[in-house]
Amino acid sequence: MNRLYKLYVLVGLLIVSAACTKDLLDQVPTTQLSAELFWKTTADAVAAVNGVYEANRTTFDRDYYFDGAGEFMHTRGTSNNQGSFSPSGLGSNGNFGFLWGDCYRAINRANYVLGNIGTLRATTTAPADLALMNRLVAETRFLRAINYFRLIDLWGDVPYFTNKLNGNAEAYTLSRMPRAVVKDSILADLNYAASVLPETYSGDNLGRASKLAAWAFSGKVNLFWASWMKNEGNASEAQKHFTAAAADFKKIIDKNIPLFRNGDPGPADNPNYWHLFQYFNEYDPEIIFSVQFGGPLLSQGEELSRDFGNRNTGFGQVWVAPTFRLANRYQLTSTGDFAPPLVLSRTTTLLNSATNPKSYEGRDYRMRATMVWDGQKMVQLSTDGLTVLPDSLPFRFGNRDGVTAINYDGAPAGYVFRKWVRQTGGIGRSDGPQDIYLMRLPDVWLMYAEAVNELSGPTPELFTLLNRIRRRGNLPALNAAKFASKTEFFKAIEQERIIELVGEGQRFFDIRRWKKAEEIWPAPSGQVLYDTQGTRIRDEFVNSDLRTYQRYYIFQIPPAEIEVNSKIIQNIPWL
């Protein structure tokens, strides 16, 4: 596998200061390279930009944990020991507060690289080298942009800077900049990137930021901003950005990029959708931008099998698992409508019982590709990653009836994931090569449909796009009459986002930008999450006050940042 980081590990991004003592202190440390020695060639610039990609990876490598703060996935904690999560508690510093530092590490590194590429460029005359450095600048600005976007999404107004900070003293002079100003700078970086970057790559450059990725994230920033402004009652600003978002996404749609395997559903017992989330298909044109991983034995592996898998699939630990609410969202292939709700019961013969395997028959093929329910077996592949092999162990929640079954470890929800779970041997659970997808073509189509629907309601083009996505689940086309209104068509968009993007870290951000937490978990009752047998797992927003909902929409600024910089003021719900 070609990986951005396999050959290049950026060492010593901090400039080594000259010391006054000759022969002893005025030497280059063996573990660092000064800017004067390092920034000599375009190869140095490529290595430095690869270092920005490396920093970016820590920001986005576990977005799927955010789904645990939605209603369709249970997260019992994290394999990187960041805590146990519930929808009402995710915004506290004790959970994902570390992302503040991750984002700024990537941003500071990007700013350092941009400054030095600018200096190197001034000494370069070869057209090919100038073109390469222009591309590297565009990639770096793209990476800086998506890290700032994550910051304003989670924290609102944040410190903004475009130069490398020289130590803590300079960092402590920064104050929070209005997120509208930061948003404009993000869009400027993405627009620049789109004007320079190529549409596709090949060979060793696979996986780098492209023109398509810049358009897609520009559209996403515009769409999110439009949603935020709509929630604040600023209709004109919302319309402006819905329009801009639609224009960005339309540029990608007009390229006529196909879905994976042309969107064909594949066999019912081995759906194509499942194969899309295996590392041997990670460079399919449907994948617009990913976080890159290289493994095994490169110290750059992902932990998908550990987090999504179980003890019988690469010795995973089931840190994340689907819930019965997700199972209820998979529609029938015969009608395209929802099946009767599952009955949470230990009785396996009961009609519609969640523990009765027959209750899951005839549903969207993406269900079998995504989750495993009682009595079902995993998909098992040969070493070529294509041929389905006989398998043996069934899944039995609670290991009932004395049947030897898949060990579900600590997953309490009654299901385990099939999506993202590797079924090829020889790769450790925390050392996988699977890239994690940050932007896929169906996401672009659905965001475009959302923007256009907000502007003018559903159009024939939007029905076509959603029906293409539904086809991969072997579902019939949408009933155009049923979804003719803006409100009803939005429900169809939301349905596809739930099913198509589950386990990819999108639902949490959708709930927040649509301001749906109070609708999903109404006060004061909230909801209770149960397993398939009807046993309570957790309370969600039960007896919550207004501040609890407010904290879902904006994160707590890490208190340590405020302690060292009095200019950083805490977000109001956390005061």
Secondary-structure topology with pairs:
Layout: H1 35-38, H2 42-60, E1 73-75, H3 93-96, H4 98-121, H5 127-155, H6 168-171, H7 179-196, H8 211-231, H9 235-253, H10 272-276, E2 287-291, H11 304-308, E3 320-322, H12 324-327, H13 365-370, E4 371-372, E5 416-417, E6 436-440, H14 441-456, H15 460-471, H16 486-500, H17 507-514, H18 517-520, E7 527-530, E8 536-540, H19 546-553, H20 559-564
Antiparallel strand pairs: 1-3, 2-6, 4-5, 7-8
Helix pairs in contact: 2-4, 2-5, 4-5, 5-7, 7-8, 8-9, 8-14, 9-14, 14-15, 14-16
Subcellular location: Cell outer membrane
Signal peptide: 1-21
Pfam families: SusD-like_3 (PF14322), SusD_RagB (PF07980)
Summarize this entry quickly.
The chain contains 20 helices and 8 strands.
Instruction: Measure the end-to-end span.
Output: 48 Å
H/E order of the elements?
HHEHHHHHHHHEHEHHEEEHHHHHEEHH
Low-confidence stretches: 1-31
Shape: globular
By secondary-structure content and strand pairing, the structural class works out as mainly alpha
Total E-strand runs: 8
Rg over CA atoms: 24 Å
Mean pLDDT: 89
Percent of sequence in beta strands: 5-15%
Side by side, the strands of the main sheet go: 1-3
| Residue share in helix | 40-55%
- Tally the helices: 20
